[in-house]
């Protein structure tokens, strides 16, 4: 009877282990991917669904929805210059942004993708190396607002090349490159109504080393701005260059001229730097200084000034008082007599008031009769007192 019991326990453990393995989603890790980015130019990396669908083991559904997440390695957020967007699980994701000079170096980004059907996950580390642009930042930059596109529609390379070709017709130059692409929602725009054909809008920043064309300059002139405030079209002769693929809001056109920042000079070696093969010579000893006179001046001068001020204040408060006798000598006799008589009369009235024993005058009583001197209580009977006459007939 002891044999079947261990066998039953082994079978139960195997069943539990199999269920646990079946319920835990599978996770796979792809090799690291290294990409490069330049300062002053847009960086776009597309997260392809097909690459991650192949990594899902046992996934035979090519149309399975895949959701991407991206953040810094061991950090919850992305770098401040990098943004991520994925409109729908059936569409690819995009990492895009424009790095600047402070972002030089290597940024480690972790990308996580999971299958919405099987809940399997795949992770990959993306190493973005930011290097300075060979030609420096473009001094002439123009920012266009495209009203009929969403941001993910202008991130593919084909769409950006098409926009650069349209911009070259406006600019009159061919050395153009896209500096940055930003959704209008990130710049304070409103979410469009769920109507077919409505888009969020995209700000596309284009740079060049050539000056602006007269068409662009006329579009941002004060006369054009005033026409925009009145709801009219600005003054520009290059409206048809972007049509019909891109609808440009010319009233939101911004032209910016960037001047190169001056480079900070490097450190200048002084005479204290030891040359090659030289001997170190210590500085001469410092001459001893006597600090007692300075200490006495710092301590005694404020004490002397305070003592003089105390003596002056004491003289004014104690030695400059007039006194009663001196004041009386300077006052006329008639004024002194008048003052003393007022004091005497006031004292006499106070003494008479304390020794007065006469009754109160009848005029001070509540109610009285002038002829009889009869007094009545006004609070005795309110109803009868209101009807009774003040003086008897």
Outline the secondary-structure elements:
Blueprint: H1 4-23, E1 27-29, E2 33-38, E3 43-47, H2 49-55, E4 66-72, E5 82-85, E6 93-97, E7 105-115, E8 121-131, E9 140-146, H3 157-171, E10 177-183, E11 202-208, H4 214-219, H5 222-229, E12 254-257, H6 292-319, H7 324-329, H8 333-354, H9 382-387
Parallel strand pairs: 1-8, 2-8
Antiparallel strand pairs: 3-6, 4-7, 5-6, 7-8, 9-11, 9-12, 10-11
Q: Kindly name the structural category.
A: alpha+beta
CA-based gyration radius: 49 Å
Number of strands: 12
**Biggest β-sheet strands, sense, barrel:** 5 strands, mixed
Tell me roughly what share of residues is in helical segments: 25-40%
Order of helices and strands: HEEEHEEEEEEHEEHHEHHHH
Q: In what range is the share of β-strand residues?
A: 15-25%
The helix count comes to 9
Keywords:
alpha+beta, 12 strands, 393 residues, 9 helices, five-stranded mixed sheet, single chain, Immunoglobulin-like, four-stranded antiparallel sheet
Summarize the structure.
The chain is α+β, with helices and mostly antiparallel strands and 393 residues long. The protein contains nine helices and twelve strands. The protein is elongated.
General description of the model:
The strands form three sheets. Strands 1, 2, 4, 7 and 8 form a five-stranded mixed β-sheet that branches. The protein has a four-stranded antiparallel β-sheet with strand order 10-11-9-12, covered by helices on one side. A three-stranded antiparallel β-sheet has the order 3-6-5, with no helix packed on it. The radius of gyration is 49 Å and the shape is elongated. Residues 382-386 have low confidence and may be disordered. It is an alpha+beta fold and 393 residues long. The protein is 30% helix and 20% strand. Among the domains are: 24-132, Immunoglobulins (Immunoglobulin-like); 138-260.
């Amino acid at each position: 009877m002891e044999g079947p019991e261990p066998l039953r326990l082994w079978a139960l453990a195997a069943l539990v282990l199999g269920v646990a393995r079946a319920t835990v989603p599978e996770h796979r890790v792809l090799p690291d991917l290294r990409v490069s980015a330049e300062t002053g130019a847009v960086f776009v990396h597309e997260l392809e669904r097909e690459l991650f669908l192949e990594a899902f083991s046992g996934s035979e559904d090519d149309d399975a929805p895949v959701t991407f997440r991206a953040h810094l390695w061991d950090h919850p957020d992305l770098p401040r210059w990098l943004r991520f967007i994925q409109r729908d699980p059936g569409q690819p994701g995009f990492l895009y942004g424009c790095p600047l000079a402070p972002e030089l170096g290597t940024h480690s980004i972790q990308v996580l993708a999971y299958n919405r059907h099987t809940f399997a996950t795949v992770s990959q580390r993306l190493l973005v190396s930011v290097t300075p642009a060979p030609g420096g930042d473009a001094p002439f930059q123009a920012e266009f607002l495209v009203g009929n596109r969403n941001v993910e529609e202008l991130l593919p390379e084909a769409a950006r090349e098409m926009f650069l070709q349209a911009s070259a017709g406006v600019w009159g130059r061919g050395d153009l490159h896209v500096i940055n692409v930003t959704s209008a929602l990130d710049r304070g725009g409103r979410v469009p109504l769920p109507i077919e054909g409505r888009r969020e809008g995209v700000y596309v920043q284009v740079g060049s080393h050539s000056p602006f064309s007269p068409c662009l300059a006329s579009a941002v002139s004060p006369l054009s701005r005033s026409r925009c405030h009145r709801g009219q079209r600005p003054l520009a002769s290059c409206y048809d260059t972007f049509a019909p693929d891109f609808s440009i809001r010319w009233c939101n056109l911004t032209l910016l001229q960037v001047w190169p920042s001056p480079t900070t000079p490097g450190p200048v070696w002084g005479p204290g730097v030891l040359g090659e093969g030289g001997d170190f010579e210590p500085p001469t000893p410092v001459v001893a200084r006597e600090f007692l006179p300075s200490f006495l001046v710092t301590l005694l001068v404020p004490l002397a000034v305070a003592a003089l001020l105390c003596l002056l204040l004491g003289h004014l408060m104690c030695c400059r008082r007039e006194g009663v006798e001196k004041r009386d000598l300077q006052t006329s006799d008639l004024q002194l007599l008048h003052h003393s008589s007022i004091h005497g009369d006031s004292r006499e009235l106070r003494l008479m008031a304390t020794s007065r024993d006469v009754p109160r005058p009848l005029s001070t009583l509540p109610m009285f009769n002038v002829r009889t001197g009869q007094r009545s209580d006004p609070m005795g009977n309110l109803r009868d007192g209101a009807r009774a006459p003040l003086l008897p007939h």
